[in-house]
Design goal:
Elements: H1 2-7, E1 12-15, H2 16-22, E2 29-34, E3 38-46, E4 54-55, E5 64-65, E6 70-71, E7 97-101
Parallel strand pairs: 1-3
Antiparallel strand pairs: 1-4, 2-3, 2-7, 5-6
């Protein structure tokens, strides 16, 4: 929904200390990578996260740039794999990754065309 995308733009949260060390400022496009995938998001430095930890909200629909192999929507599921952690629990909520400044500007989520699932009959 367009108005929800304007209200909650889905950035990636990064500690102020990490952002300063990596030359990342509020609103910069960043590339987040893990052994499972890559995605782009807009940076939101905050004091609420410890250094070495980022927060990527859940719920974005994948918007894969097939040529570059990068999800432009910031889907957290792109970064995680089906890793069994014992007792029938999968490791979906955490992963080891990297974040770095990305040179290409990312259009805001509210500028993306809406996606409407087709009814299956």
């Amino acid at each position: 929904m367009q108005w929800l995308r304007e209200t909650w733009p889905n950035p990636v949260f990064i500690s102020v200390q990490d952002a300063q060390e990596k030359g990342i400022q509020e609103g910069d496009t960043v590339l987040i990578t893990s052994s499972h995938g890559k995605c782009l998001r807009t940076a939101c430095p905050t004091q609420r996260f410890m250094p070495g930890v980022i927060g990527l909200p859940h719920g974005a629909w994948v918007d894969m740039d097939e040529e570059k192999g990068i999800d432009r929507a910031g889907s957290d599921n792109i970064l995680t794999g089906q890793i069994q952690s014992g007792q029938g629990v999968s490791g979906w909520n955490t992963c080891i990754g990297n974040i770095e400044k990305y040179q290409e500007e990312l259009a805001s989520d509210s500028e993306q065309p809406p996606r409407i699932p087709e009814a299956q009959m």
